[in-house]
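User: Here's a chain of 297 residues. Predict its fold as tokens.
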Amino acid sequence: MKLVTCRYEDRERVGVITETAQAESGQEVVFLPYPDMNSLIETAAADEKAWEQLESVVHLKGVPLADVKLLAPIPRPRQDVICLGMNYRAHEEEAAKYDAGAFTKERPVAVYFSKRVSRAGDPEGEIPRYEGLVERLDYEVELAVIIGKTAKNVRAEEAGDYVFGYTILNDISARDLQTGHKQWYFGKGLDGFTPMGPCIVTKDKTSPEAAFPPALEISCRVNGEERQRSNTSLLIHSIPRILEELTAGMTLLPGTIIATGTPAGVGMGFDPPRFLKAGDVVECTIEHIGTLRSTVV
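Assistant: Prediction complete.
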């Protein structure tokens, strides 16, 4: 299923995208009886019948997808997004070339950091330029994992049972703030630096993402030019390993978002670097999920 948060008739709604021959786009949105996506995820974690109810709505009449405004699937995450740095080998190498002091790891361990999100950016939304504060604005397409139930002391072989679904996240980064402050929180956590969407694809038995961990094509284009392309099967630290390591010492609640890292091809990886400027359009695409499109303003 593809779950969305959207605005329709001045109301924020949660819904599921369905296929239909009636709408011009061939897709409709059937609204669901939940106040927000966090509530839906929590209910699905606590009530086994909730999944059956979700699956049953695909046959109901909805409104054309073109008539709603898609918002970030989880507009207001309850906690900071958990992120992994340098989790694709080629990106690890390009980062070290850009700034060896800031990005070289002494040991082959996962790099975790958090991304502050007061409100996630919408599909077809905007990325603020912050002229005067940020000079080196960069993009990072990432597969984001949504946790479906409370996770503590999870074994790697059980990790798939704790995944609710997946979405796309663009980990916008101010490289000058990131390297200048010798930590990543400020340079990654400015308002508007977390575009997300366009939907959550649930991990269920009927979806192409049923295989776990997922092996999905991932790419990013800037102004139509492809900059990044890889496959999520190439993560250095896999999703099962990430969940096992994190939950050995912390509890992950339903709705927790984990951004799994970006492939090579970010702006700082070019010689000379190719950072974003006002007017640039960034399109992040992951197979079976869709495209997250943002414009720098």
